[in-house]
Amino acid sequence: MPEPVISAQGIDLTFQTADGPVHALKDVNLTIDRGDFVSFIGPSGCGKTTFLRTIAALETPTGGRISINGQAPDEARRARAYGYVFQAPGLYPWRTISGNIALPLEIMGFSRAERAERVARVLDLVELSGFGGKYPWQLSGGMQQRASIARALSFDADILLMDEPFGALDEIVRDRLNRALLGLWAKTRKTIAFVTHSIPEAVYLSTKIVVMSPRPGRITRVIDSPLPRHRPLEIRDTPEFIDIAQQVREGLRLGHSYD
Amino acid sequence: MPSRSAKVCVWGIPTTDAAAQTSGGVNPTLRTALPILMVLLAIMVIWYLAAVWMNAPWVRDQAARADTVLTTGDLIRQTPSLDRPVLPAPHQVAMGLWDGIAGQKVTTKRSLVWHAWVTLSATLAGFAIGSLAGILLAVGITHNRAMDLSVMPWAVASQTVPILAIAPMVIVVFASMGVTGLMPKAVIAAWLSLFPVLVGMVKGLRTPDAMQLDPMRSWSASAAQVFWRLRLPSAMPYLFASLKVAVAAALVGTIVGELPAGATAGLGARLLSGSYYGQTIQIWSALFMAAGLAAVLVVVITAVERVTLRRMGLAR
User: Fold this and answer.
1) Domain boundaries, chain A
2) Is A115 on the interface with B (CB under 8 A)?
């Protein structure tokens, strides 16, 4: 029985800029169920990041209703309903990796002992055990991004919002991290919303793919993936996989993304 | 495997060795010291030439009065060793400094060390007050819109008032209230060191960008938490840069504060009395003492900066 955790109805968002209003989101309706892995895909400027930020109460919609676990976004944020992974790792250079991961825990008032215990656990989860004492600049880009995922996981929110977390990484590292992310998702049973530019990434990871198009930012198609939850990398060569990728491409064409 | 070994030679350690050898195998300390020594030597040469040239009229005048014939050799011998030269020669200044530092008891007014301490104590007091005020004002400016709009113009205006005009007034006003000695000078020093710290800290506290602030927002961090865990650490490099400017400015402020109203203690008073009595060697000694003091202060702050930034993991 699907249990909705995020539901958006008629979301509109207009930014007032010096060049006049920019219609970032128009009439976005979407329901995300518990345990879903939902990818948002579309060209730059289609509002996928803006929508994710709206869920996180980092932007306020100008119209419509959004609820997370039945709460308004800012209440949900205070209730620590989600962890957010940003495009750039955004680790603080004066803190070690452990210090960075402990930062949200400090802010949320966890005890020292519990902080240490949680940091060790999430470091292990993203396979960075032994790197806790290093500073961010001593780590590669992929490791930094893993540390920022660990930071978002540290306070154990049920929802993980990820904004192109692997966008800046090469394909080999990206494959590895994608597989690790699926493992994590299977292990922790979290609900994940994931923004990406890559069709194979979206198809490989998601149970639901949301195709968006720009000017104004809107949803053109929602594709439910029939792929099983357990996905070895070879699944990308199966006819089902290629068929879903084809549907995504069609959806993008429908939104004039290739014009 | 020949191509591989060639690669090592091009990109590997042997190349660095070769590079060291092409520059003649000079040891690195000497290589950095050599340009400095050359510049120092050039300054000495120019200084001696200037001393001969500027002191020559007086020597010629004396010779004319005594009706003696002056050879060029005499001129060059006599000009750098006058009692009250227009421009003392480097070795005269060095001797004046040495006598002032090591030749006198440090508790007497003849000791440069004693005068330097008088100046230093007022400088440090003013520097501490000014820096603290600068930091506090910067925190206010970055957290309060009303302060942002109102304080900065006044801070800028305060710096356009010439310190030479304001210093005697400060001294006189304080003296009329019965306050003399360290405090009035410290106020002038604080006045000068406040501004660089204020500007540096405002810039530093505003360095964090959306990339660093967004995570804080996503954790619902309070303004105080953002300040202590993000803004203040980000501002540290800016703070140290401005502290170096501020400490030098504080020293200048203190010396200016020692000039008026016949002060008898401090490097500024030493400069003033030297110029009253035509003791140019005394003036130059005090000047070099002040420069040395400023250098020591900046070196100390640099050392604290290095330790702090290394502990923060910011120095690589």
Assistant:
1) 4-81+158-254, 89-156
2) no
